[in-house]
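Progress report, Aim 2. The chain analyzed during this reporting quarter is listed below.
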Amino acid sequence: MANEKDVSKIIKELGYEPKEHACIVVKYAPDDTLGSKLTNFFTLEYYIMQLCEEEIVFIPLQAIFFAGMFPKKEIALRIPYDTIRSVNITEVQNTLNYEVTFTTDTDTIRLSVQKKEWSEFRSAGTVATGNSFLSVGGLAVASKDWQSINWHRQNLDNTFSLLRNIPQ
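Predicted structure tokens for the chain:
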């Protein structure tokens, strides 16, 4: 799995200017239809969301791993800040997630973001630490040392703060 320095390097190589500590793991949030929920349940597609100087950039995790850490710019999704009309961040009741909703000039994009408090036990922590829960054991995951390498956990508050302050 990629560490934050690798992600920042990749984003720079793609021609963007990443903001420091503004990178988290996200997943597309399903709507309330059963079909959408089932599709989401069986899909393990996660993305790195990096806030940059002029835009938000999304890179599929698969592209990083299967491209040998050198993805092409075409695989990145870019949302310029000047097209964003609103950002809404809500805690999803009875879950371990937040929902981030972007309203742009043309669309509404809903993302699911895992809460930092449980991320070491979930996909965000697996991606952001480079190890799976099963390969390190519960005691290592719960330690402060382990939490310190989980960049999703470390960056969540700052990223949300920056998102809330996007000029609208």
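The two ends are 34 Å apart (CA to CA). The helical segments are 4-13, 34-41, 61-66, 123-129, 133-136, 138-142, 144-148, 151-164. These observations will guide the mutagenesis work planned for the next reporting period.
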